[in-house]
């Protein structure tokens, strides 16, 4: 075990965890909502620091990231646990393992050094902290990310956005991109279906944008839950106000975990959601989980020409080497180049326009 970061002492040897927006009050001998942070005699420990439950080499498009080094591979890792309890979780076997199975925590013993070495040996350009929720294995992600930057790798979070501002600011020098799940725009439903509040997620999206972290957003469109025109329009308008250039990924729901009685999302619903996003003024709206490759290509928001052609997770053509449309020269926001400067004293980060790295 490893002592946790970002907690404070309370009376009676209790602690308050300040890693995520739950800010759990944890008495001695108890765990937080994530089930992987335990108070032992007034000291908070992470139970998953070196326990990697899932490790894969994925196309970066699978995360999904469409505006971050298209066509490259990402070294993707996760541990057991999550600070959400989404009834439709697609990875519930590992995200909910500790909570559903009386504290069971499985995983291969893996160090931050081994993670970085594995990414380099397999030719990956990025490490993605994904599948469950990277915030709950923050200490492992933080240590690996620092090492990764010094080796010329970039770090990505695929996250529910429930990280606290202090945790986000701590990892910001080493975090280059994030795909955030925005699961709807109804706080009551967020609490009921996910076990969390909506506002901290919105705040994280804004703060990541302000901190110069490249942001993409994914919404799993669930029939009868978040698929109304009103709610989809609220999401799209919020994203446009934060930044019209933010890619919005719309994914189809398939029955899983505790929502086996809900029908899969149909094509018409996703097409309707796509149209709402475009009407709201978002430059890049994508549809996933459809077999016929609809709205997976990146087109120029100014002239409409196709710039990145995709088929599933495969990039067939990419004309955005320098981030500009070769037809009309419009600047298309994203991270398109493979070149990367190694960190100097841990302060390397993306400049506000996200086209180059500055020390």
Oligomer: single chain
Tally of contiguous helical segments = 9
Number of domains: 2
CATH class of the largest domain: Alpha Beta
Task: Characterize the largest beta sheet: strand count, sense, and whether it forms a barrel.
Answer: 8 strands, mixed
Which architecture of the largest domain per CATH?
Answer: Alpha-Beta Barrel
Anisotropy-based shape: globular
Portion of residues in helices?
A: 10-25%
Task: Give the tally of β-strands.
Answer: 21
Structure description:
This protein has two domains: 2-46, no CATH class; 51-350, Alpha-Beta Barrel (TIM Barrel). The chain is built from nine helices and 21 strands. It has helices at 92-95, 97-100, 112-121, 138-150, 165-171, 187-194, 199-210, 229-242, 267-279; strands spanning 2-3, 7-9, 15-17, 25-26, 37-40, 43-46, 51-52, 54-59, 73-78, 108-109, 126-129, 154-159, 177-181, 214-221, 248-252, 285-287, 298-299, 306-311, 314-318, 349-350, 357-358. Helix 9 (267-279) links the parallel strand 15 and strand 16 (285-287). It is globular.
Topology diagram in text:
Elements: E1 2-3, E2 7-9, E3 15-17, E4 25-26, E5 37-40, E6 43-46, E7 51-52, E8 54-59, E9 73-78, H1 92-95, H2 97-100, E10 108-109, H3 112-121, E11 126-129, H4 138-150, E12 154-159, H5 165-171, E13 177-181, H6 187-194, H7 199-210, E14 214-221, H8 229-242, E15 248-252, H9 267-279, E16 285-287, E17 298-299, E18 306-311, E19 314-318, E20 349-350, E21 357-358
Parallel strand pairs: 9-11, 11-12, 12-13, 13-14, 14-15, 15-16
Antiparallel strand pairs: 1-6, 2-3, 3-4, 5-6, 7-10, 8-9, 17-18, 18-19, 20-21
């Amino acid at each position: 075990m490893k002592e946790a970061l970002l907690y404070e002492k309370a009376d009676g040897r209790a602690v308050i965890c300040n890693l995520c927006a739950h800010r759990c009050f944890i008495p001695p001998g108890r765990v937080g909502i994530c089930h992987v942070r335990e108070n032992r005699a007034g000291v908070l420990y992470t139970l998953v620091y070196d326990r990697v439950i899932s490790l894969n080499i994925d196309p970066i498009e699978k995360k999904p990231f469409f505006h971050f080094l298209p066509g490259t591979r990402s070294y993707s890792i996760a541990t057991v646990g999550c600070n959400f309890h989404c009834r439709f979780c697609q990875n519930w076997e590992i995200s909910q393992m500790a909570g559903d199975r009386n504290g069971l925590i499985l995983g291969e013993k893996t160090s931050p050094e081994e993670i970085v070495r594995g990414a380099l040996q397999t030719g990956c350009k990025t490490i993605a902290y994904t599948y469950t929720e990277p915030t709950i294995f923050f200490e492992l992600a933080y240590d690996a990310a620092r090492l990764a930057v010094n080796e010329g790798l970039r770090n990505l979070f695929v996250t529910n956005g429930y990280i606290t501002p202090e945790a986000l600011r701590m990892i910001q020098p080493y975090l280059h991109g994030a795909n955030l799940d925005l699961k709807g725009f109804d706080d009551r439903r967020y609490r009921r279906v996910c076990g969390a509040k909506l506002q901290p997620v919105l705040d994280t999206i804004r703060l990541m944008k302000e901190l110069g972290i490249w942001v993409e957003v994914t919404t799993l469109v669930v029939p009868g839950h978040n698929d109304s025109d009103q709610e989809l329009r609220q999401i799209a308008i919020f994203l446009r106000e934060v930044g019209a250039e933010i890619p919005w990924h719309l994914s189809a729901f398939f029955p899983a975990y505790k929502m086996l009685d809900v029908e899969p999302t149909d094509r018409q619903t996703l097409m309707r959601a796509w149209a709402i996003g475009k009407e709201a003024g978002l430059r890049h709206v994508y549809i996933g989980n459809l077999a016929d490759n609809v709205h997976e290509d990146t087109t120029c928001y100014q002239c409409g020409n196709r710039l990145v052609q995709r088929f599933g997770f495969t990039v067939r053509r990419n004309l955005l080497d320098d981030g500009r449309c070769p037809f009309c020269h419009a600047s298309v926001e994203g991270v398109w180049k493979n070149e990367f400067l190694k960190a100097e004293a841990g302060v390397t980060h993306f400049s506000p326009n996200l086209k180059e790295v500055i020390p």
